[in-house]
C-alpha cells in the first residue's frame, strides 16, 4: 500500500471514471431521497392547513350550537355560500337517529362536507347533535376529519 502511494504516476483514466461512477450513483440515490422528503413535507403542510381550517369550522359550529335549539337552527347557521344557508343534500334514518348531509361548501381552496346526526326524541341525548366535518384541500385532495357531539342550547 505504501509502495503504491509513493508512486508518482497518478491514477489511470479507468480509476477516475470508476470513482466518478460510484460518486454519481450515490448522488442519484440521495437526490431521490431529497425529492421524496420534499413531497412528504408539502403533503404534511397541506394536511395541517386542512386540519386548521376544520378546527376553525368546528369552533364556528360550536358557537352556533350554544345558541341553537334544534339541528335546523344549527344547520341554518352553517353558511354554504352567500345566498344559501343550510341546504340539505340528503336525509336518512339510521336506526332511531336521523342523519342529515349538507351540500359541500367551497371556500378559499377548501371544500367543507358537513353531516349532522340527531338522536331520537325519547333518547337521553335528544338535545344533542353529532357533528361530522370533512375538509378537503382542493389542489392536493389532502383531507382532515373532525367529529364532536354538541349539546344544543348549552344545556
Automatic annotation (TrEMBL):
GO terms under cellular component: cell surface
Q: Does the keyword Transmembrane apply?
A: yes
Write out the transmembrane intervals: 12-35
Q: Which Pfam families match?
A: N_methyl
Instruction: Output the InterPro entries linked to this UniProt entry.
Output: N_methyl_site
Q: What keywords appear on the UniProt entry? A: Competence, Membrane, Transmembrane, Transmembrane helix
Does the UniProt entry include the keyword Transmembrane? yes
* Cell location: Cell surface
Q: What protein is this chain from?
A: Prepilin-type N-terminal cleavage/methylation domain-containing protein
Amino acid at each position: 500500500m505504501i509502495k503504491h502511494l509513493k508512486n508518482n504516476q497518478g491514477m489511470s483514466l479507468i480509476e477516475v471514471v470508476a470513482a466518478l461512477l460510484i460518486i454519481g450513483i450515490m448522488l442519484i440515490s440521495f437526490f431521490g431521497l431529497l425529492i421524496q422528503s420534499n413531497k412528504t413535507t408539502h403533503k404534511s403542510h397541506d394536511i395541517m392547513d386542512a386540519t386548521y381550517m376544520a378546527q376553525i369550522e368546528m369552533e364556528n359550529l360550536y358557537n352556533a350550537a350554544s345558541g341553537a335549539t334544534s339541528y335546523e337552527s344549527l344547520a341554518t347557521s352553517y353558511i354554504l355560500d352567500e345566498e344559501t344557508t343550510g341546504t340539505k343534500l340528503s336525509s336518512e334514518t339510521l336506526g332511531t337517529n336521523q342523519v342529515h348531509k349538507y351540500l359541500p361548501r367551497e371556500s378559499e381552496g377548501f371544500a367543507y362536507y358537513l353531516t349532522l346526526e340527531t338522536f331520537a326524541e325519547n333518547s337521553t341525548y335528544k338535545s344533542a347533535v353529532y357533528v361530522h366535518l370533512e375538509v378537503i384541500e382542493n389542489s392536493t385532495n389532502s383531507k382532515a376529519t373532525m367529529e364532536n357531539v354538541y349539546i344544543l342550547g348549552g344545556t
